[in-house]
Write a structure and sequence with these properties.
The protein has 514 residues and is of the alpha/beta class. Strands 5-13-10-4-9-7-8 form a seven-stranded mixed β-sheet, sandwiched between helices. A two-stranded parallel sheet has the order 1-2.
């Protein structure tokens, strides 16, 4: 095989078929699962989907081949290795590599990304990445005439387009599913969507637009603590009716549990942007709540064991590593580190309006068993592998439920700390998004919002108001305006009201204290 000399045209066509065969099982599976194969027209639609994929890949691979033998070899070797990694994650977690997922990937820190490592990935890279790359590297390839490459690439593409044109009844289905098919086509799914993410980032990285000036109506000392959860789904909270006791501490507190709350997105960066946005959008075009209040003269502190914060202009921004220096006990390696010297920081602030944001690690997978101290391993047996498909449903749910049990403890501990301040305090907790635990064969989060199941969108929203806060607001008991549906868009305007802010962007309809 390696002694024979092949033309660049032959190798290009061979590479297209290898690429289709090795990395497109998820693509084929998606098509077959979403077609009614009992109908004969479904088989034509299936064929058209494959032909469309083949035609596009023939054109693009041939265009790459025009750049020369050495470049094309390098392109194929990088592509096959990258495809093998992408294929592993698509197969293991049933993700779709659309723009949202690539944005989520780029905003994942090394500490979280390393949690996805499983020795099995090495097998994927070896067999589906390095082996075909080695074959390409060893092949003896002689150049082909450019006109032959152009004729082959464009000819196949035009023929494919003609077949699709003659079967125009399939267009509606292909168009409806284009986003998901594109997110499963290798290597264009992750490469093109990575470029789209970068282009969007450059646009949004422009100077944040300032909101219209606001002002405080009074100088009453007021504290708002906003806890942003991670990957917590409402369905696993016993406060929301779950049959396992995952909230033994919070149920003792005089809290308000807001039912029917939905996230705006299914991954962190977009959800956090929505929580802090005046209009609930995920664009980050305008200054977030934190920056807006700081500009008005409030004391704002952001404490994080996570990522995804917008461009912050606050008094202090603390990473977990910095907070750990003033922390003691086993909880310092977990979310408890975020409340180290919390009261001291609040009491030392000279400003009358104080916003503390605690961004937790919460229930981020796949290593759920690492998100809580060993003493919180209450539900057993526990899934302790990143390949969640290998776990039983019971062990996977147990591991996740233990993270909720620890979140319950962390939130209750925070509330009890705040009680000791004897100040008007509004405590708000809601998650950035939910999580899939094998339902519909989906795991983790980040599924395109339009098709994401409710478990990735339905989130917990918990409110606590100190006695002093109730008195300040004229409430006789804890109060939040009843609504049929709550959302992350409620945070901005509720916090403005808590601080007594007058602002042109304030929306009474989204304020939960009115």
């Amino acid at each position: 095989m390696f002694k024979k000399e092949y033309t660049l045209l032959q190798v290009t066509i061979f590479a297209v078929f290898i690429n289709l065969i090795l990395y497109h099982y998820p693509f084929i599976s998606y098509v077959t699962e979403h077609l009614e194969l009992s109908k004969s027209s479904a088989y034509i639609t299936f064929a058209c989907a494959v032909i469309a994929l083949f035609g596009v890949q023939m054109l693009l691979f041939h265009l790459m081949a025009l750049l020369g033998v050495r470049f094309f070899k390098l392109f194929l070797m990088i592509t096959f290795v990258a495809n093998s990694i992408a294929f592993y994650f698509v197969q293991t977690y049933n993700v779709i590599l659309d723009r949202a997922m690539m944005d989520n990937t780029f905003n994942t820190r090394y500490s979280e990304a390393s949690a996805y490592f499983d020795p099995k990935i090495l097998l994927y890279v070896l067999l589906l990445g390095i082996l075909p790359s080695f074959i390409i590297y060893k092949l003896r390839i002689k150049p082909s005439k450019r006109k032959h490459l152009l004729l082959s690439g464009f000819g196949t593409f035009i023929l494919s387009a003609l077949i699709l044109y003659l079967n125009s009844f399939t267009w509606l289905w292909l168009d409806k599913n284009a986003k998901y098919l594109g997110g499963l086509a290798m290597p264009w799914s992750y490469s093109i969507n990575a470029v789209r993410v970068e282009l969007k980032k450059r646009r949004t990285n422009q100077k944040q637009l300032l909101l219209p000036d606001g002002k405080f109506r009074d100088n009453n000392k007021t504290v708002v603590v906003l806890v942003i959860g991670e990957s917590a789904r409402a369905s696993q909270f016993s406060l929301y009716g779950y049959n396992k006791e995952t909230n033994p501490q919070l149920k003792k507190e005089n809290i308000l549990v807001l039912k029917n709350t939905y996230s705006t997105a299914t991954y962190t960066t977009k959800s956090v942007a929505s929580i802090l946005s005046y209009d609930g959008s995920t664009s980050n075009s305008y200054e977030p709540l934190t920056n807006y209040l700081h500009r008005m003269g409030a004391y704002v502190e952001w404490r994080t064991k996570n990522w995804g914060a917008p461009k912050e202009k606050v008094n202090h921004f603390y990473e977990a590593g910095e907070l750990k220096k003033m922390c003691q006990g086993e909880g310092c390696d977990y979310d408890e580190v975020l409340i180290s010297n919390l009261n001291k920081s609040i009491l030392s602030a000279k400003e009358s309006k104080i916003l503390m944001v605690l961004h937790t690690a919460g229930s981020h997978g796949p290593t759920y068993f690492k998100k809580y101290p060993p003493s919180f391993e209450h539900f057993t047996p526990v899934c302790k592998t990143v390949d969640l498909k290998e776990c039983s449903k019971e062990s996977l749910f147990n591991a996740y439920d233990n993270t909720i049990l620890y979140t319950d403890y962390f939130l209750a501990k925070t509330i009890n700390k705040l009680k000791k301040l004897h100040l008007p305090v509004l405590f708000l907790y809601l998650s950035d998004h939910g999580e899939s635990l094998g339902e519909y064969n989906l795991y983790l989060h980040g599924t395109p919002y339009a098709i994401a199941p409710d478990v990735q969108k339905k989130i917990p929203f918990i409110v606590w108001e100190s006695k002093e806060f109730l008195k300040l607001k004229g409430f006789t008991k804890p109060y939040i305006r009843p609504k049929e549906r709550y959302g992350q868009n409620n945070i901005f305007h509720t916090v403005l009201d808590a601080f007594g802010v007058e602002s042109p962007v304030y929306k009474r309809v989204d304020d939960l204290l009115r």
